[in-house]
Design goal:
The structure holds 2 protein chains of 2 kinds.
Chain A: E1 14-23, E2 26-32, H1 36-42, E3 49-50, E4 57-58, E5 71-76, E6 79-85, E7 95-99, H2 113-116, H3 125-129, H4 134-148, E8 163-175, H5 179-190, E9 195-198, E10 214-215, E11 218-219, H6 220-233, E12 237-240, E13 243-249, E14 253-259, E15 274-286, E16 290-292, E17 305-307, H7 308-318, E18 326-330, H8 334-344, E19 350-353, H9 361-368, E20 372-375, E21 377-383, E22 390-395, E23 407-410, E24 413-417, E25 420-422, H10 425-429, E26 433-437, E27 442-447, E28 452-454, H11 464-483, E29 494-495, E30 519-521, E31 526-527, H12 528-536, H13 542-549, H14 562-573, H15 577-580, H16 594-598, H17 615-620, E32 623-628, E33 631-637, H18 644-657, E34 660-663, E35 668-673, H19 677-684, E36 697-703, E37 709-719, E38 722-727, H20 732-746, E39 753-756, E40 761-767, H21 771-778, E41 794-799, E42 802-807, E43 816-822, H22 826-837, E44 843-844, H23 847-857, E45 903-910, E46 922-924, E47 937-945, E48 950-958, E49 967-972, E50 977-984
Parallel strand pairs in A: 1-7, 8-9, 8-15, 9-12, 15-28, 17-24, 18-19, 18-24, 19-20, 34-44
Antiparallel strand pairs in A: 1-2, 3-4, 5-6, 5-7, 10-11, 10-29, 13-14, 14-15, 16-25, 21-22, 22-23, 26-27, 30-31, 32-33, 34-40, 35-38, 35-39, 36-37, 37-38, 40-43, 41-42, 42-43, 45-48, 45-50, 46-47, 46-49, 47-48, 49-50
Chain B: E1 3-6, E2 10-13, E3 18-22, H1 36-43, E4 52-58, E5 66-72, E6 78-83
Antiparallel strand pairs in B: 1-2, 3-4, 4-5, 5-6
The chains are: A alpha+beta, B mainly beta.
The structure holds zinc ion (ZN).
Zinc ion binds next to loops of chain B.
């Protein structure tokens, strides 16, 4: 197709490079430098989507971030992406896009039937319609809404694109490269400040690209080009285009999303699709400009109704006509620029100006060019369904209440301007208390709360000379404050046309007996009558009106609609706009993709992976790994066709029969030094620590102040003032913070230092009846007899030239030792143990066998010490010292902790000795009792006892000790199981603990 | 994200710190006889003031020191930060 709406020579596009693309399956051509919107308009395509609620045909309204309609589904590089604004998407070769929110097609949309049943879809219709009957929700309402609503379809595939995060610091961040931003940036950069200048569009210059002004004897655009070129060369300046500063957070932290590759057919290798910048700026210069707002009239959503500024942008940047028979409908001077631009390109516009007799240079210029201007005239309604074909226009009375005779004139577009709204989103997000400026009928930034300054039209200044002067001044002032330098640049002369004031007119009254839909919020389909209804129904707060009607709640956040909504509320309520107030601006200013927010922290990069020094040995020996916190631990070592059950059973049996070795490097280790260490441990642990001799280890339990068990482990006295503490893998970091808290804040008088040594030591547990014999072979010179190294003893030794620590401690309940060497020697230690242990039939064992061994011994671990239990619950009564105070002791007096009904740890065996009990099952008295079946306890851990060759579980059971011998049922509705069980002692194997002392 | 001045390390981003709650809570001395009410106040009851609040932060990804921070809970303005053993 030919580009019938493309002008022959104007615009900033590259006409030497033709680009082909597809929209809704049809092939079109555009040029390099086009957006998808400008290229479609060049081809005369105005119908791009269907509206959210009524499925009315929708076209283009703006030319940038404010676009409410033209949201498309993009296909790029075999990925689909919803919620892309066609006005921002740059054209590339092979681009493919589709309309959203229409079915089966944008031309014939079944949902449009909503348009004719619109009396059923008034304000708050979701709340009213879908309340009753309840049973309809699941079957009818939800599927209906899901199909009818939405701005596209999210991909169900893994996003293979790369997104990056970047942290940056600067003296001054400038948001927007229009005249204000360029002037501020230039003045600050020349005064030595480190600055970042961010521009949301591909081209720098903002309004200078489309306005007829001169700065320093050159055109606005040439001046912008020159300033940008100079800034780019300066070492203290970072200039970024396609970069939207979308959020202003605490302490001058701003977040910016840079679209690095979205304008390319394919992301280059090692280059991200998007990059999120976290910028901590000493000062922020907000130069985000302003957005034109429409005047509200009948059927003002018809394709072909566009903002006057957008029409001008399509003309001047893209050389595209939004129509060939334009009506310019305005209440101010700025739209005259659009009319003159049409005229200069050989198109005859008609201007309808709501003002009766405005006097200014630009009005005179339009008159002199012979443009047809109708003063005191308005557009009453647009005619046409999928595209405007004519307009109903009328004269309007001086009080703006009465319409004259309505006449119909032909047109193919209406370029509307209701004056300008400063983009105060960022300053409002920063906590700035905004204020209403009566002169421009809009809110502007008020008192700054953080270090931010707003300049230019974002501050309500629409005069270029004032903008340039104040922005140069602010850039200089702010930079001087930071750099203490005093290099002032001269401010260039500005020439521009002077404007006269706008007309405070925003909504055309309905003619008699006409009920045109007049849209306020184009994206969420909120009309004037919806707001009026909400107010009649008693909604008063603007925040409530917003939520009830969904005004301003769409993805464009009401950029073009908010102010008109406020005007309407204040009119109906007979209030002034500032007393109605505006709703809170919240980040993000424009939608940000989830991928950019997540960044590189996806999949296995979502957290660090810690591996023990023996990891590669485990891998080579068929270990199947399991996540333990952020560690990877061998769960079992697979032999032949074994599964988890067979392998872990074999490994556990071998520990009971011969000897096994387990990697325990992941245990938390804390080195404790200082003359008051014993006293400190005595306060941290529930049992006594003052008399522990050097060369001895002790098991200890520590509580939180509320009496709940925090962690357990063994601590060894290495020398007089030196201890080695171990914690569980999961609690290692918390325990260190806990110790630091007490040492730094509660008992700073104690002379003790703690430091984590978890990664400094590699650990191997050697367990089983043959462990001593094996150890003796590893350390032939050492006396490792029961007398030489008794249970809970500690010694240091030499492992083939490597210094090693030997602890005689046991988690498995067997005769066992733990060996520690410096991490670098971990693999050496491990290989020696295996090599020497071969003659004793040594086998490595993983966490599954480790669990089996501890469960059948009745050793409590994380599933019993679950953040809800106290020492008494876990049979740890013997570890509670009566003689001394310790952290959390006072809480153990609490009545509930001493109740007879209190839960206790017990053992559970299925009556059939065959059926494994799922962890988490509830223990109940009767299997078929009326629901809810009273719960007596729950299964905390289950294993297959290798000692007795039947299933065994631990449970936390109400009044547990008195339940031993009783028969109950274990219910698992999830696994659909009801298992008759008997309650037994939790110490199922070796209840006297003879083996560990043997 | 807050910008917190660690008295040892200087200005650092909030994500290097862990929050530690009310910085004015005093743990009752060991071995002291105290009422249930007193103990429960220490363990459970905290004020949630609107405005200035002295709180603890732990520089876990930095110097590992607990510090005291005076912060406005509404505006997030930080007025002062000091070492754990000093008073604000
Ligand atoms: Zn620090």
């Amino acid at each position: 197709m030919s580009q019938t709406y493309r002008l022959n020579n104007s615009g900033l596009i590259n006409r030497d490079k033709k680009i082909s693309f597809k929209f809704n399956g049809k092939k079109y051509f555009g040029y390099e430098g086009d957006t998808l919107a400008s290229a479609l308009l060049a081809n005369g395509v105005h119908l791009v989507g269907r509206s959210f609620k009524y499925h009315r045909p929708r076209g283009f309204f703006g030319a940038g971030v404010d676009e409410p309609y033209a949201i498309v589904q993009m296909v790029r590089n075999n990925e689909t992406e919803p919620n892309v604004r066609a006005t921002e998407q740059e054209l590339f070769e092979g681009l493919e896009a589709k309309s959203v929110n229409c079915w089966p097609s944008v031309n014939f949309d079944i949902g449009a039937i909503n348009n004719f049943f619109n009396k059923f879809l008034p304000a708050g219709f979701y709340y009213k319609t879908f309340m009753w009957p309840k049973s309809f929700w699941h079957r009818i309402y939800e599927p209906f809404i899901r199909k009818a609503a939405g701005f596209g379809v999210a991909s169900t595939k893994y996003d293979s694109e790369r997104y990056e995060h970047k942290y940056e610091y600067c003296d001054l961040l400038i948001t927007g490269s229009g005249p204000a931003g360029l002037a501020g940036a230039y003045a600050a950069a020349k005064n030595g400040a480190r600055i970042i200048l961010a521009e949301e569009k591909p081209r720098f210059g903002g309004s200078l690209l489309t306005s007829n002004v001169n700065i320093g004897n050159q055109s606005g655009k040439d001046w912008a080009d020159k300033i940008i070129a100079e800034l780019k060369e300066m070492p203290n300046v970072t200039v970024k285009n396609r970069a939207q500063v979308f959020g202003y957070y605490d302490h001058n932290m701003l977040v910016m999303s840079e679209k690095v590759s979205d304008h390319l057919p394919k992301t280059k290798k090692y280059i991200p699709k998007q990059r999120l910048w976290y910028v901590r700026a000493k000062e922020v210069l907000i130069s985000s400009g302003s957005i034109e707002r429409p005047i509200v009239f009948g059927n003002n959503d018809t394709p072909g109704v566009v903002l006057a500024s957008a029409a001008k942008e399509y003309l001047k940047i893209y050389g595209v006509l939004v129509g060939k028979k334009p009506i310019i409908f305005t209440n101010n001077d700025s739209a005259y620029e659009t009319a003159i631009e049409f005229k200069n390109n050989g198109i005859e516009p008609i201007i309808l100006d709501t003002r009766s007799n405005p006097k200014s240079e630009i009005v005179d210029e339009a008159k002199n060019l012979g443009i047809n201007i109708k003063f005191s005239h308005v557009v009453v309604a647009a005619n046409g369904y999928k595209k405007i074909n004519s307009a109903q226009i009328a004269q309007i009375s001086a009080n703006k209440k009465d319409l004259g005779i309505i006449e119909k004139i032909n047109c193919d577009c209406i370029c509307v301007s209701g004056f300008w709204t400063p983009s105060i989103h960022l300053s409002s997000q920063s906590g700035n208390k905004t204020k209403f400026d009566d002169k421009i009928d809009a809110f502007v930034p008020g008192k700054s709360k953080q270090n931010e300054t707003t300049v230019g039209s974002a501050n309500g200044i629409f005069n270029l000379e004032e903008t340039i002067n104040t922005s140069f001044e602010k850039g200089y002032e702010l930079s001087k404050k930071i750099t203490n330098k005093d290099n002032k640049v001269s401010i260039p002369q500005v020439s521009e046309k002077n404007y006269t004031s706008h007309d405070k007119f925003w909504c055309v009254p309905l003619p008699d007996k006409k009920n045109y839909k007049r849209f306020l919020d184009f994206q969420n389909d909120v009309t004037v009558s919806d707001i009026e209804l909400a107010l009649r129904e008693g909604y008063r707060s603007i925040e409530h009106v917003k939520r009830y009607t969904t005004l301003g709640m769409a993805t464009d956040q009401g950029k073009t609609s908010n102010l008109n909504g406020l005007q309407l509320v204040s009119d109906v309520e007979n209030k002034i706009v500032p007393s109605v107030g505006h709703t809170t601006f919240r980040p993000p200013y424009t939608p940000v993709s989830i991928g950019a927010i997540v960044g590189r922290e996806v999949g296995k990069h979502s957290k660090p992976t810690r591996k023990s020094p023996m990891h590669s040995w485990h891998e080579k020996n068929n270990a199947v790994f399991v996540d333990a916190g952020i560690w990877l631990r061998p769960r079992y070592y697979k032999k032949g066709n074994e599964g988890l059950f067979e392998a872990s059973k074999r490994e556990a049996e071998n520990v009971r029969k011969n000897v096994g070795v387990c990697d325990v490097t992941t245990l938390g280790k804390i080195d404790i030094k200082g003359p008051d260490s014993a006293e400190f441990l005595n306060r941290v642990y529930t049992n006594a620590w003052l008399k522990l001799p050097v060369g001895k280890a002790r098991y200890g339990v520590m509580l939180r102040e509320d009496g709940i068990v925090m962690d357990d482990g063994t601590t060894t006295r290495i020398s007089e003032n030196h201890y080695h503490m171990t914690t569980t893998t999961a609690q290692a970091a918390n325990v260190l913070s806990h110790l630091e808290y007490y040492l730094q804040l509660v008992w700073p008088e104690l002379n003790v230092n703690v430091v984590s040594t978890t990664e400094q030591w590699a650990g191997a547990a050697i367990a089983g009846p043959k462990s001593r014999t094996l150890l003796q072979k590893l350390f032939p010179d050492k006396d490792l007899s029961n007398e030489g190294l008794p249970f809970m003893g500690y010694t240091e030794a030499n492992l083939f030239g490597i210094p090693a620590r030997i602890f005689r401690i046991s988690f498995s309940g067997e005769l066992a030792y733990e060996l520690n060497v410096e991490s670098d020697f971990g693999n050496f230690m491990w290989e020696k143990i295996i090599e020497v242990g071969n003659e004793f039939n040594i086998q490595p064992y993983g966490t599954e066998a480790l669990s089996t061994l501890r469960i059948e011994m009745g050793h409590v671990a994380g599933t019993e010490l679950d953040g809800r239990t106290i020492p008494y619950d876990n049979g740890l009564d013997g570890l509670i010292s009566k003689k001394k105070d310790f952290i959390g002791k006072r809480s153990l007096n609490r009545e509930a902790f001493n109740s007879k009904e209190r839960q206790k740890v017990v053992g559970v065996v299925p009556l059939d000795k065959k059926t494994s009990i799922p962890e988490g099952s509830h223990l109940v008295k009767e299997a078929n009792a009326k629901l809810p079946n009273p719960k007596l306890g729950h299964i905390s851990a289950s294993c297959w006892s290798v000692e007795y060759n039947n299933p065994f579980s631990l449970a936390i059971l109400k009044d547990g000790k008195n339940m031993i011998g009783k028969k109950l049922y274990a219910l698992s509705p999830l696994k659909n199981k009801s298992i008759p069980v008997e309650i037994v002692s939790s110490h199922y194997v070796d209840p006297k603990g003879e083996r560990v002392r043997s | 994200m807050l910008y917190i001045k660690c008295p040892y390390c200087g200005l650092r981003s909030q994500n290097e710190f862990a929050y530690g709650g009310d910085g004015t809570v005093k743990r009752p001395a060991l071995n002291k006889e105290i009422s249930d009410v007193e103990w429960n106040n220490f363990v459970y009851n905290r004020k949630s003031p609107r405005g200035k609040h002295i709180e603890l932060w732990h520089h876990i990804s930095g110097c590992r020191q607990w510090i005291k921070v005076q912060r406005d809970t509404v505006t997030h303005e930080i007025f002062k930060t000091v070492e754990a053993d000093k008073d604000i």
